[in-house]
Design a protein that fits this description.
Layout (H helix, E strand, L loop, with lengths): L1 E8 L6 E8 L2 H8 L4 H10 L2 E5 L2 E7 H19 L6 H16 L16 E3 L4 E3 L3 H12 L2 E5 L6 H15 L4 E6 L15 H19 L2 H10 L2 E5 L11 E5 L7 H8 L7 E6 L13 H8 L6 E5 L9 H21 L5
Parallel strand pairs: 7-11, 7-12, 8-9, 8-10, 10-11
Antiparallel strand pairs: 1-2, 2-4, 3-4, 5-6
Helix pairs in contact: 1-3, 2-4, 3-4, 5-6, 6-7, 9-10
């Protein structure tokens, strides 16, 4: 359990502060600070504070708001360690992002102790996942409460991974009887008929990201048993026609590569006690030139339907390697520049 030993303004600067924290469990404190204090170094870098550890204690100095954010991030991470969950650099980055986001919602940020970070989470027997960005938090909460959710945005934001994790959680809780994972078999112009093997062999490469996410949530041997029993079904989008998907968690990934007809067909498969999650990136359409994306059309048509929730991820939500975020931002900036160049000059 963590105790705040002292919170005091730094002398000579009313907007500066000094926070001293103490953690009861030395072993957990060591894991919290990271090897060679690498987690504290990341907090220093991201928040612009000075964090120095000694034993099971850490002193944080700097801007009052940033110190408060650092304290909340450490508080959350220590709580996770107390539950037996290991933390890494990505977890620290996520806690920092959420602490900053929480602070943005405060009218008068102070160093008074506030509640712990309230991060949405998905729990399966194999692992527990916490939101790492405010958009992930909104997405995870939307999947909990809504029957149809669209997760839209660039690669690396966790759209598909979190959707599969949520489906696995629903299956373990008994809230659904099965998981159905689907993708359109369209990838940069390749055609299934030119791939070797039977239909499963042809389809598997397109669905590999869904398998990978499943194996992260459920032991591989259990996934295989569930596949054989039909409790987990992985199929190309074309196999959905004519079915009513009831008591199931249904995920359509890479939905930007659906046609208008395919998207309408898929959405109308929704049955009783089912949850449907559609993920995709409208900037990565691989359909033939001139063919309209069913995802883009569905987002426009369903915008007035209040029971349908759309969560939009941005480059800042990328949780992969920092270079991936920079790449996504560079491409987005290029699109904005080209759009601006095509606009007529103001009269």
């Amino acid at each position: 359990m963590k105790a705040v030993r002292g919170v005091a303004p730094a002398s000579g600067a009313s907007d500066m502060a000094h926070i001293a924290l103490s953690f009861e469990d030395n072993r957990l404190a060591s894991a919290l600070f990271g090897q060679f204090d690498e987690h504290l170094a990341l907090i220093e870098q991201k928040l612009g504070v000075d964090a120095r550890a000694r034993g099971n204690k850490v002193e944080i100095r700097g801007d009052a708001t940033a110190c408060s954010q650092a304290r909340r991030a450490l508080d959350h991470l220590y709580s996770r360690l107390q539950t037996g969950v290991d933390i890494g650099q990505s977890d620290v980055e996520g806690a920092i992002r959420m602490a900053i986001a929480e602070n943005d919602q405060l009218v008068l940020p102070t160093l008074e102790a506030k509640g712990r970070l309230s991060l949405a989470q998905i729990s399966t027997r194999r692992r527990t996942i916490h939101a790492r960005t405010p958009t992930q938090d909104a997405y995870m909460r939307a999947m909990e409460r809504s029957e149809l959710v669209f997760g839209i945005g660039p690669a690396g934001t966790g759209k598909t991974y979190l959707a599969v994790a949520h489906a696995a959680q629903l299956l373990e809780r008994g809230q659904v009887d099965r998981i159905i994972l689907s993708r359109p078999a369209v990838e940069a112009g390749e055609r299934l008929g030119f791939l070797p093997g039977d239909m499963k062999d042809k389809v598997d490469p397109y669905l590999r990201p869904l398998y990978d996410a499943l194996y992260d949530m459920i032991p591989a041997e259990k996934v295989e048993r569930l596949l054989v029993a039909g409790a987990i079904e992985i199929a190309p989008l074309a196999f959905m026609r004519g079915r009513t998907l009831a008591n199931a968690a249904v995920i359509l990934d890479e939905a930007q590569n659906t046609t208008s007809m395919q998207m309408k067909m898929f959405l109308t498969r929704l049955g009783e006690k089912a949850r449907m999650i559609v993920t995709g990136d409208p900037s990565q359409v691989d359909l033939p030139p001139g063919q309209k994306s069913g995802l883009v059309e569905a987002l426009r048509i369903l915008e007035p339907v209040t029971s349908v929730v759309t969560v939009r991820f941005e480059a800042k939500d990328v949780v992969r390697h920092p270079l991936v975020q920079a790449i996504v931002e560079a491409y987005e900036e290029d699109v904005r520049a080209r759009v601006a160049a095509t606009r007529p000059a103001d009269a």
